[in-house]
Each structure stands twice: as C-alpha cells, then as structure tokens.
Automatic annotation (TrEMBL):
UniProt keyword list: Membrane, Transmembrane, Transmembrane helix
Residue ranges of the TM segments: 21-38
Pfam families: Sulfotransfer_1 (PF00685)
Keyword field contains Transmembrane helix: yes
Species annotation: Actinia tenebrosa
InterPro entries referenced in this protein's UniProt entry, alphabetically: Gal/GlcNAc/GalNAc_ST, P-loop_NTPase, Sulfotransferase_dom
GO terms, molecular function: N-acetylglucosamine 6-O-sulfotransferase activity
Keyword Membrane in annotation: yes
GO biological process: N-acetylglucosamine metabolic process; sulfur compound metabolic process
Domain of life from the UniProt record: Eukaryota
Annotated gene: LOC116306891
Protein name from the UniProt record: Carbohydrate sulfotransferase 1-like
Annotated Sulfotransferase domain residues: 131-436
Length: 457
C-alpha cells in the first residue's frame, strides 16, 4: 500500500512541469486512488446485487449454498460449466432441482392470469365452472371414485381437504366448525385460496398430509414435484415445492372443473350454503353420494380395528349410529329440496366396482363433463382392481399401488368371513336403509356364503 502511494507521488513530481499539468495529473491520480480502494468491495457489491435479483425472482438462496453462488458468478464470467466440486458438497443435486422447480412454479401463476380473460369464454362457451363434491363414509371406496375424476386432464382434484380442519372439529362448537368447512369448500370451488393459507401450509409442509398432495395429479406433477422412476423408493414430500395461495389459485384456474372428495361431511343439508340459487352463479356444483352395504362397512371397520374388544352391544351401537345418519341423508335427498334438485345422485359402491366403465360414463354425463380417453385407458388397466393408494397419482403411467384382486372378490369378501350372527345384528339395525338402497337380507348361513347369489337389487 505504501509502495503504491510512493510511486504515485514520484510520478506526480515528474509530470508537474506547469500548474495546468499538475492540476490535471493530480485529478487523475486522485481518481485512480479512489478506484483502487473501491475495487476491493466491488466483488461484494456484485454478489449482493445477484442475491437481490435471485430473491426478486422468488428463488430460495440457502446459507449452505453460498459457495455455489460464488461458483455461478465465476462461471458467468468465464462461460464455463464447472459447478460441482468436492468443496461444495452441501449444494446437492436435489437442492438444485428443487430451486429449479420453484423457479418454474411461477409459470403456473403467470398462466393462471390468462384464465380470467374472455378469450376462454369464447372457446368454452361459458364462464361458469362445473364442480363436483363427492361425499361418502369411511371404507366406501371413495378414493377409487375420486381417482376416476382425478385422471381427467381438465379436473383439479383435491383429496380430503377438510382434514386440514380436524383440530377445530374437536375443539370448536359444531356450528363454528361447520362454518369453517363451508368457508373452505367455497374458497376451493371458487379457486380462491387467498384466505386459505392454513390449507396450503397443511398440504405442503405436514408429512402426514403426503397422501393429500400426491393424490392430486394437478399438484404432484412436474414442475411442482419432480418425476421419478417406477421403482423409486418411498417418496419424500420435501422433494415437492411448497405451495402458496396464489399458486394454488392459478393451478385451479388452469382446469375447467374442481372435484373434492371428502368423508368429513356428515349431513347433506349442511351443503345448502354452497348452492347459491340467487343471482348469477360463479360455479355450478353437483353432489355425488357414494354408499356401500352396511354389512361390508362394519366388516371393514372390524378388520381395521382388530385390537378392539367388539361385543354385541358395541356392534349394535356402531351399526345403529351409522345407519341412522345414512337414513337421514337419504330421506333428505329423496325429499328433493329446491336447491338440491338435479344436483344430487346416489351411487352404490357395488355397482361402481363391478361395472366401472358403465358407471363412469353415467357419472360424467350427470356432472356435465365429457369423458376422456385417458380415463378410459386408466379404467382398462384397473378394471380388475379397486383398492387404491394415493401415492400412485404422482406417476399415472406407472404401476398404481393397488391390491391385485378382482372387483367381485373385494366387494363381497365380507360374505366369506363375517359370522351369520353378526350379519343378523346389522340387518336388524339397518333394515330400513338397506331396503331403500336395494340391499337384500340373507335368510341363513348358506345364502350368506353363496357368493353366486347377489345381495344387490
């Protein structure tokens, strides 16, 4: 530093032959001295500017990847591709892929703006969305029904979104919880997630919600989640980019229909608040109510809760409560209140499992959606399987995680293991609702075990 100053001074004495020259040269020397000091911080300024630009573009710049940033700056100057070395082992291939996916995710937000233009109205002919709500009980096969809709390329499908409010179900009054459910569903059907940040956090961050994310083709396909091979080990939810409310709204608006599957709606009359019958509607909603033989439902409950001490009393209480609620819903739907007329259909799981192509065609016709070749191809592959796992939605072309058994064996398997005495208890408590739904009463053990004798009208 002192040497540089001395050289400047000597050069100054030589050149200062006149006052005019001295002033000029002195000014030049001051300029170069300032440039020398400021050049030491130039690299830091350039790095800060790049960091600002990266944050502006929505990328996550992680502390452990600061070394990667310096490499990228050097590559930009030298136009080389040397970005991975042993000393930068923390910048893994997975992290770079996630950063790239987050950058591509903005594409959805930009594309979503186009759905607000009238050009789409001219193409599709109507501004009103056709949405579907699938309601059911546990063990009714609603995941299989939901997947039939999920396979349609124009459907934005959500699997059990009401579970994001599970805490409030137990810790709030019933009317408060019902209001929260209505608010959630209304936001989903309007593709408006601005006030549903808790739901986007639920579906993005909680490991327990992995089935909700991966059960939706629209939310688990690239660029939101990286594609992986058919033999990939257990999938990690952290490989999918985090969803934001505006991103979810844009993805929803890129599809013409929204389908929600839930087992959390207890009573159909609570859906009246979602059916706006006054003034112009933003969307049209239809309800698909999936039911199943009460004897099969009780059998599934017992098989999934083998550690419980089932008694005649507990069995009778479970059957009575389940069939009472089901009967109330069916009677309410049959009464056909104005807001539900033409918007509700009842579907038996036994019909869906044994005649999937025919029922799918009828369903699409009812809800007003054109059947798609992709759905038919999927049903061709799965016509002999009905036990579905949501993990498969991430790779629809690959093998679905299902149990390999025929529809009839799975649907009526309860007939081969349930004691006749248990069947009689269920039939006694559920006689009225079974009669309404077309399920036959068995007379003895022989008829129960004879699977060639149908128990469905």
């Amino acid at each position: 530093m002192l040497l540089s100053t001395r050289l400047i001074k000597i050069r100054h004495e030589k050149l200062c032959t006149t006052n005019r020259v001295c002033v000029t040269v002195t000014g030049m020397m001051i300029f170069f001295v300032i440039l020398y000091f400021t050049s030491k911080n130039w690299g830091q300024l350039e790095e800060d500017e790049i960091l600002t630009n990266l944050r502006y573009n929505g990328l996550l710049v992680r502390a452990e990847c600061k070394a990667c940033l310096k490499i990228a700056m050097a590559n930009q100057q030298r136009h080389q591709d040397d970005v991975t070395t042993g000393q930068h082992h923390n910048c893994t291939k997975l992290q770079r892929k996630i950063d790239l996916l987050e950058q591509k995710m903005k594409l959805y937000e930009n594309l979503g703006k186009f759905t607000e233009e009238d050009s789409l109205v001219n193409h599709y002919g109507s501004k009103v969305r056709q949405n579907i709500l699938v309601i059911s009980n546990l063990h009714c096969g609603s995941s299989f029904l939901g997947e039939i809709f999920n396979q349609h390329p124009q459907v934005f499908y959500l699997h059990e979104p009401v579970e994001s409010l599970e805490y409030y179900r137990e810790n709030r009054p019933e009317n408060v919880y019902d209001t929260m459910v209505t608010h959630l569903l209304n936001g989903i059907f309007h593709c408006d997630f601005r006030e549903l940040a808790y739901f986007t956090d639920f579906i993005s961050l909680q490991y327990s919600s992995i089935k909700h994310r991966l059960s939706s083709r629209a939310l688990s396909s690239p660029p939101l989640c990286p594609s992986f091979s058919q033999n990939h080990p257990l999938f990690n939810i952290r490989m999918c980019t985090r969803l934001r409310p505006q991103t979810l709204s844009a993805i929803c608006n890129l599809h013409r229909h929204t389908v929600v599957k839930t087992i959390q709606v207890d009573f159909i009359h609570k859906l009246s608040y979602l059916m706006d019958t006054e003034g112009p509607a933003d969307y049209a909603l239809k309800v698909v109510h999936l039911v199943r033989d009460p004897r099969a439902l009780i059998d599934a409950k017992i098989q999934n809760d083998l550690n419980s001490n089932w008694t005649t009393t507990s069995l009778r209480q479970n059957a009575r409560a389940m069939c009472k609620d089901l009967l109330l819903n069916i009677k309410y739907a049959v009464s056909a209140p104005p807001w539900l007329q033409g918007r509700y259909t009842l579907l038996r799981y036994e019909d869906l499992a044994t005649k999937p192509h025919q029922i799918a065609e009828q369903l699409y016709q009812f809800v007003g959606i054109n059947n798609d070749a992709q759905v038919r191809r999927w049903l061709d592959k799965k016509s002999n399987t009905v036990s579905y796992s949501g993990m498969s939605a991430l790779n629809p072309s690959g093998p679905v995680e299902v149990q390999d058994r025929s529809s009839s064996e799975n649907v009526f398997q309860w007939r081969g293991r349930m004691p006749y005495s248990v069947v009689r208890i269920i039939e006694t408590e559920c006689y009225e609702v079974m009669n309404l739904l077309g399920y036959k009463i068995v007379d003895d053990m022989d008829e129960l075990r004879a699977t060639n004798i149908p128990l469905v009208d």
